[in-house]
Specification:
GO terms for molecular function: iron ion binding; iron-sulfur cluster binding. The protein has five helices and three strands. By secondary structure, it is of the alpha+beta class. The protein has a single domain, classed as Sufe protein. Chain: A, CATH 3.90.1010. A three-stranded antiparallel β-sheet has the order 1-2-3. A hairpin with a 2-residue loop joins β2 and β3.
């Protein structure tokens, strides 16, 4: 049986795409997530789940004067979700609800509509540029920011 050249080309392309997706920068972010774990007695705790892949992120946080003062995240996600949580963890302390919502919305546009990299102070999301083509991973990438935004919402309207 002869090898199928079309199948070989598709496999090579897929391998190349995956190599670009899982760059050294992205894997370094995923391996070094700041503010992991759980907080003792947080003001709010939110768990988000990406239904397609099953990734979860639980965020605990405290907010004073409209700014995040304490934050922890328990990340059970793929390397892409871990990398996004890593970027959030590096910048979340001192952020307002508006800044987190803006970052989440900019990251959504960046992934789904080929928009620009999210603006300061959330440097680092550029490592996720190759993930644009992997739509099934977008929900995992957005989990940590979504959970943080929902945390602010929960503080306004507790259960």
């Amino acid at each position: 049986m002869r090898p199928d050249p079309e199948r070989q080309t598709m496999s090579a392309t897929s391998s190349t795409d995956l190599a670009q997706l899982y760059s050294g920068t992205l894997l370094a972010l995923a391996a070094d997530i700041p503010l992991t774990g759980r907080l003792d007695a947080p003001m709010v705790s939110i768990k988000e789940r990406a239904p397609l892949c099953g990734s979860t992120v639980t965020v605990d946080m405290d907010v004073e004067d409209g700014r995040v003062t304490r934050f922890a995240q328990d990340v059970k996600a793929c390397a892409l979700g871990q990398a996004a949580a890593s970027v959030l963890g590096r910048h979340v302390i001192g952020r307002t609800e508006a800044e987190l919502i803006r970052a989440r919305d900019e990251l959504t546009v960046f992934l789904k509509q080929d928009g620009p990299v999210p603006s300061a102070p959330f440097e680092g999301f550029e490592a996720l540029l190759p993930a644009r083509d992997f739509k099934n991973r977008h929900a995992s990438i957005l989990l940590a920011l979504t959970a943080a935004c929902h945390g602010f919402g929960r503080l306004k309207t507790p259960d």
